[in-house]
Amino acid sequence: MPDDVIENPAEHRFELALDGEDIAAAYYRIDENGDVVLTHTEVPYAYSGRGIGTRLATGVFDLIRASGRKAVLRCSFMAKFYTTHREYDDIVVG
């Protein structure tokens, strides 16, 4: 399985390629401030318990940081991830 999270702006999501055609995805919208509002995260059920969500979240936060943007957490999974990964304090604004 590839480890690279990519941004797919056309689909308004970040993607982590899994086996075959499967992907894990974090959906977003851009708000009026240009911030990335994370709204929903999906990991296929067959991949549950393998740390895929954590790999996706880490990649998403790293990409947002690298792009100079900020994150607004409206997704419960991303908000929970953030509570134990405070190294992203510099990019989370809400």
From TrEMBL:
Recorded superkingdom: Bacteria
Gene3D superfamilies named among the record's database cross-references: 3.40.630.30
InterPro entries: Acyl_CoA_acyltransferase (IPR016181), Gcn5-rel_NAT (IPR045057), GNAT_YJDJ (IPR031165)
Residue span, N-acetyltransferase domain: 6-93
Entry EC number(s): 2.3.1.-
GO molecular function, one term: acyltransferase activity
Keywords: Acyltransferase, Transferase
Protein name per Swiss-Prot or TrEMBL: GNAT family N-acetyltransferase
Organism: Paracoccus pacificus
Species classification: Bacteria, Pseudomonadati, Pseudomonadota, Alphaproteobacteria, Rhodobacterales
